[in-house]
Specification:
Blueprint: H1 4-9, H2 11-20, H3 27-63, H4 69-102, E1 120-125, H5 138-144, H6 150-157, H7 167-185, E2 190-192, E3 197-199, H8 200-205, E4 217-218, E5 224-226, H9 231-235, E6 242-244, E7 250-259, E8 278-288, H10 293-310, E9 315-319, E10 331-339, E11 344-353, H11 357-362, E12 365-367, E13 375-376, E14 378-386, H12 387-397, E15 405-406, E16 420-421
Helix pairs in contact: 3-4, 5-12
Length: 425
């Protein structure tokens, strides 16, 4: 969430930032509530101070066996007045906090203003392959090679699910292990394996709640949610803590299954692996000092890009415009892979800097000996990478005329030296 003091002192800037993010929240309404809330707090503090003073007088008079009846009446009147104001304060505080938790992060000044049409391509890597034969899409390849089974997935779970089998499962596991090894051994991340179920407070800490509950899978009989990404549990590992500033930056890499209802996505790329309710992902999360967060953001993007370069897949990096960013992000890059069969780019990673937005919600701070008090940390995260669209791109870009799929060089050690996923394999 945003710093309330910052909102008060920069109301116009915040309102413009919200407008650029297509938020309908009126900051004037929030500030009026904030003003009323502070007035109620001041009134209650003043009345409580007066009540405490009179209570001391009453005690003194009773000790000296003097008449304190008028003071007792006054104290009861004050208690009644305090109760009324506190009731009003509770209502205002609830509305105030509800709006505050729904105010999105404001964009960094370097982010282009506008919707998806204002997104900026900052990098293109690799060459799109030219094929001399009729291309198959990932669905045709997966079913022909018997490595993907969407029919049985629909039978056991419904639409929007997939079953990997045989060398499809091997490919999936190889990609996960390859990415975890790369990020932990070469990029300096510490691996963690988090729970896939988290509580409401944890979902609130990273910004999924209260605004996006319809996109989450919730357990009926427990106050728990299936995670939409490992960003949620990994970021909240340090909720309510003050980290040692001398040990920053702190990097974590985590594999997890991810679960998303994809509410409102009916009819949008629902076939195959493009948009699914359950998928696998390796996530990268950083905890950094504020003065280094944008340098760390560029390094984070490079860490994710390195996966694609080692897999020798053509990709492009997009700087998202204000109206295309997520609720919590201040700046975000998307990495997109080329799908030759669909002839379009597919998002495979979002690399986001949240500044102190998530840290304030989750109360994550840091401190060094030379600091007078602890300060909020900056959090960043990126998919490093998401598997479904990565699998799509590998199958389609590495397909051969005979219907087989070559294994990317970097994955061969993870697949027992297999060179090719073929019909007869």
């Amino acid at each position: 969430m945003l710093d309330i003091k910052f909102i008060r002192e920069n109301a116009d800037k915040v309102q413009q930032g919200l407008k650029n993010k297509n938020s309908k929240i009126d900051i004037k309404v929030f500030l009026e509530l904030d003003k009323k809330r502070r007035e109620f707090l001041t009134q209650t503090e003043k009345l409580k101070s007066e009540k405490n003073s009179i209570s001391s007088e009453i005690a003194l008079k009773m000790k000296e066996k003097q008449d304190a009846s008028s003071l007792i009446v006054k104290n009861k009147e004050l208690a009644s007045a305090i109760s009324l104001i506190e009731n009003e304060l509770e209502l205002v505080q609830k509305e105030h906090d509800n709006i505050l938790m729904k105010i999105p992060n404001i964009p960094h000044e370097s982010v282009p203003v506008g919707g998806p049409e204002a997104n900026k391509v900052i990098k293109e890597w690799g060459t799109k392959k030219k094929f001399s034969f009729n291309l198959k899409d990932h669905i045709q390849l997966g079913e022909k090679l018997d490595i993907l089974d969407f029919t049985r997935a629909a039978k056991i779970s419904g639409s929007g699910f997939s079953v990997y089998k045989g060398l499809g499962s091997t490919l999936l596991r190889a990609l996960i292990n390859f990415m975890l090894d790369l990020h932990t051994k070469e990029h300096g991340y510490i691996e963690v394996f988090p729970p896939f179920l988290v509580n409401r407070q944890t979902m609130t800490g990273t910004g999924q709640l209260p605004s996006f509950e319809e996109d989450l899978y919730a357990l009926k009989d427990d106050a728990l949610f299936l995670i939409p990404t490992a960003e949620v549990p990994v970021t909240n590992l340090y909720a309510g803590e003050v980290l040692d500033g001398t040990k920053l930056p702190l990097y974590h890499a985590a594999y997890s299954a991810c679960f998303r209802r994809e509410a409102g996505s009916y009819g949008k790329d629902t076939k195959g692996l493009t948009r699914v309710h359950q998928f696998n992902k390796v996530e990268l999360v950083k905890f950094v000092k504020p003065d280094t967060s944008y340098d760390e953001h560029e390094k984070l993007r490079e860490n994710a890009e390195k996966v694609l370069e080692l897999l020798e897949l053509p990709y492009r990096t997009i700087l998202l415009a204000t109206g295309d960013m997520s609720f919590s992000a201040s700046k975000c890059y998307d990495l997109e892979l080329w799908s030759p069969a669909a002839e379009k780019w597919l998002e495979v990673s979002s690399c986001s800097n949240f500044e102190d937005f998530q840290a304030r919600r989750a109360n994550i701070k840091y401190k060094t000996n030379d600091m007078k008090k602890a300060e909020y940390i900056h959090t960043l995260n990126a998919s490093g990478l998401a598997l479904p669209r990565l699998v799509i791109s590998i199958l389609e870009n590495y397909q051969n005329e005979d219907g087989s799929v070559s294994v990317p060089k970097v994955l061969k050690p993870y697949m027992g030296g297999i060179e090719k996923i073929g019909v007869s394999d």
